[in-house]
Amino acid sequence: MSQHNSSQNCSFIDVDKLMKTLQMAVHIPTFLLGLLLNLLAIRSFSSFLKKWPGYAATSIYMINLAIFDLLLVLSLPFKMVLSGVEHPWSAFCTLVECLYFISTYGSVFTICCISLDRFLAIRYPFLASHLRSPRKTLGTCCVIWVLVWIGSIPVYSFHGKKENYMCFHNMSNSTWSARVFFPLQVFGFLLPMAVMGFCSATSIRILLGLRDRSHRACIRTIAVSLMVFVASFLPVHLAYCLQFLVRNGFIVDCRARQRISLFLQLSMCFSNVNCCLDVFCYYFVIKEFRADIMARRLSQVPLVRQDTMITRD
User: How far is it, in rounded angstroms, from Cα 110 to Cα 239?
Assistant: First the structure.
C-alpha cells in the first residue's frame, strides 16, 4: 500500500529503509502481546458465555473482535517478511494481504456493532431485549464475515499484471481508482465512525444524565472504545486519502510525496497496534460484567435472609 518503487526524479528508498527498521520494532512486540492477550480474551469471554447467559450477546461480539485481532496478529510476521521479498509467490502474497484486509475491516464493523448494541440497550432497553439474543448476535457476526470477504475481492487485483512487485507495495493504478477508493472509505470507515460517534456520544449523555455512580464503568468502557477506534483508524484512512491524491496526479511535488509515503506507512504500522489496544476495551467490559454480577449477588442476600426467617417461623 506504500509507493515502494521510485520514479526518475523521486526516490522512496530512504523512506522504505527507515520503515523496515521501525516495523520490526513495532510489529514484533505487537505480535507477541497481541497473540497472548487476544487468546486470553477469547478464553475469558468464552467462560462468561458458558456461565452467564445474560452476557452472551456482548461476549459473542467480543470473541468475534478478538478473532479478527488474532488474524491480524498472525498476518504480521508474513507481512514483515514478504514486504521485503521481490517476486513473491503471488497466491500466498494475495492470501496474506487478504487476511490483513479482512482482519482490519472486520474489527471496524465489529466495534461499530458493539457500539450500536450498547446504544440500543441504553436508549431502548425494551426493544434491545428482543434484539439481543445470542442467535441474532451470532447472525450479525456471520454477516460481518460475509461482508469483509466480499469486500476483499479487490485485493486479488492489487498488483494488476505486474511481475516485479513486493507484497503490500507497488499497488496498481486500478487499486487507487475512485470506484475502489471511495466505497472503501465511505463504507469501511466513515459510515462506521459516524455510527459509533453518534451511539457513543448519545449513550454517554444518557448515562451522565442518570447521575448514578454504578454507570461509571459503562461510561469508561464507551469512552475508551471510541478513543481506541479513532486513534487506530483515523490516521491511516487520512493517509489513504493523501495517497489517493498522489496516485491520481493531484500531488506531484517529490518532497510532499515522500512525506505522504512515510505518513502512510507509519499510520499503517501503528494501526496494527489496535489488536493490543482493544485489550483495554476487553478489560473494562469484563470489569463491568463482574461489577454487575457482584451487584446482583448482593441484592439477593436480603431475599435469602428473609426466606430463611420465614422458614424458621
Answer: 23
